Amino acid sequence: MVSLTLVVAFRFYVQLPTESSHEFHNEMVAELAALEALPTTRLHPKIACKVRELVAAGETRLYAIRKYLRCDGLPLGLTWV
Q: Has residue 32 been placed in a domain?
């Protein structure tokens, strides 16, 4: 009687980041802080407030939020682009 044995071995290689690969983080943090300080938004404050309310209530689907805002009515003169 002949016995066949099949041995399968897997090797996984992982390359971890080096110390020098994290040097740019301090620069990124400074740039992000500068960008967050700029109040450049084209979104009406009432719409932003309603979107926050919907997301806090658990709605995360973009089209459902858009539909709700259309049905609920937007502030005068504002439309979705």
A: no
